[in-house]
Amino acid sequence: MKRVSSHVSLASEAEINLDLSRLIIDRPQRFTLERKRSFDEQSWSELSHSHSHRNNDGFDSVLQSPAFPSGGFDSPFSTGTHFGGGGPHPLVNEAWEALRKSVVYFREQPVGTIAAVDHASEEVLNYDQVFVRDFVPSALAFLMNNETDIVKNFLLKTLHLQSSEKMVDRFKLGAGAMPASFKVDRNKNRNTETLVADFGESAIGRVAPVDSGFWWIILLRAYTKYTGDVSLSESPDCQKCMRLILNLCLSEGFDTFPTLLCTDGCSMIDRRMGIYGYPIEIQALFYMALRCALQMLKPEGEGKDFIEKIGQRLHALTYHMRNYFWLDFHQLNNIYRYKTEEYSHTAVNKFNVIPDSIPDWVFDFMPCRGGYFLGNVSPAMMDFRWFALGNCIAIVSSLATPEQSVAIMDLIEEKWDELVGEMPLKICYPALENHEWRIITGCDPKNTRWSYHNGGSWPVLLWLLTAACIKTGRPQMAKRAIELAESRLLKDGWPEYYDGKLGRFVGKQARKFQTWSIAGYLVARMMLEDPSTLMMISMEEDRPMKPTMRRSASWNA
Ligand code: GLC
Question: Ligand 1 centre and the CA of 108: distance in Å?
Fold first, then answer.
């Protein structure tokens, strides 16, 4: 497999100039690729040729990317019994059955999937609700199975919930906020059903989910891309919903950075874990949602203003992320030698990071080959932890340059034991321990070292890892990870997360039959078997467009 040198030079401003006109015309197209349930090496390369005329969906860029060998590669499909022949893996049927059991109905229509169907657990908390972020892998699995109604219903129901009153005590939340979760309230006496949303006002920690709105936009684009049905995304309701979400994050304030300032616990990591500030998970989802919205917003009326604002924000955000959040061996060495207290715009150490604050573990962890986006960057603060979701989303959304994407995958390969271990995939690395755990998590007993959000291993992340693997042309890596999960998931009852440095133990307080563990597995498997499905969630690289060659008038003369 082709390797790109370990050092990824920082992108110059010119290099990352977004070609806005191209992004805007990148409208949803009908997904007409022939479904292939499984295929071998030959069909990979056939696919790459026969569909190379398709444009702007992120899938062509996969097949044409420098990381993708033109002559095929050692296919996982030729070696595995279930990858490319031999019928579906026995786990697949089990997973579908479990996923179907999690479907939630509202007035006889399927509207989502419950977070966990764990009858054994004493405390239900809010695991009996439909979480927006948790539903995303379920939705992708249903779409891939041509069951599109549940996804459409979910998008419409959550859209309507957006307009419910959102109060935390006496404080009213912004109109664009999307719910973290919702449930169906059944009144048996009156025989009525109502949807009740939680915008963070009931959630542990009372934090509004910043990621929900972004996932909603990303899912709307996936639905549109997959079904070819533009009527939903073009409807006035969906256009308004997108504008309201965007309004929350594009309004002017005191910011000096294009990244989005967040409080702790506002995403998948919904407890205090020291991710307040500018967490990579939110920045990557923000970037992806902006690009998805740009494809779907109609330029008429109020949409025009938003399209303009998105363009400007993407331009600045891309530059900021690719430069200041990127860490590889070379960059680590630069930071290690940083001077401090530099004044004025000529400063190299723009955020005044004190080299002494670099944690010891990074020097051992950083391989010569590979790199990743830092967990967080703000004044005098760099969170050197590696976070799975943000780095995988950076690849699929093309927030990472092709070289950076290759480097992120190189790092996962080099640090396989630490990041994948015996159960894919660590939510973050490394865990906070002792004093740091006390100060940063507030002594959270659920987030002890190598558990839950603090270095736990989450099977749901398998679908994102697989998507990143496919995009960078490394299906073997995905296959290896899927097989690891397959050896345990069913046996262990589809846990929410695993504990330990290697992810060997079923999580201390992990739910069983956690829906996104089930759906994440199905999506990973289906994506590997039919990589063309990646286009639902993949974005094209934003490389500058080549000048169009026009034939002169005399050409045909
Ligand atoms: C936990 C997770 C959160 C998830 C929810 C429902 O709170 O931290 O990410 O959405 O459970 O599964």
Answer: 26
Are the C-beta atoms of residues 382 and 325 closer than 8 Å to each other?
A: no
CA–CA dist 177, 231 (Å, integer)? 23
Q: Give the separation between CA 98 and CA 119, rounded to whole angstroms.
A: 13
Ligand 1 atom with the smallest distance to the CA of 204 is 7
Res 82: pLDDT: 56
Closest CA to 325 of 256, 279, 260, 272: 279
Residue 34, amino acid:
E
Residue type, 344: S
- Domains (ranges, CATH) in the chain? 94-536 (1.50.10.10)
For 90, the token pair is 């026995």
Q: pLDDT under 70 in the chain at which residues?
A: 1-86, 122, 543-557
Q: Relative to the CA of 270, which ligand 1 atom is closest?
A: 8
Q: Which of 366, 508, 478, 503 is nearest to 421 (CA)?
A: 503
Q: Ligand 1 pocket test: pick from 268, 389, 518 the residue with the most ligand atoms within 8 Å of its Cβ.
A: 268
For residue 344, what pLDDT is reported? 87
pLDDT tens digits, one per residue of 66-80: 333 333 333 333 333
Ligand 1 center to 231 CA (angstroms)? 32
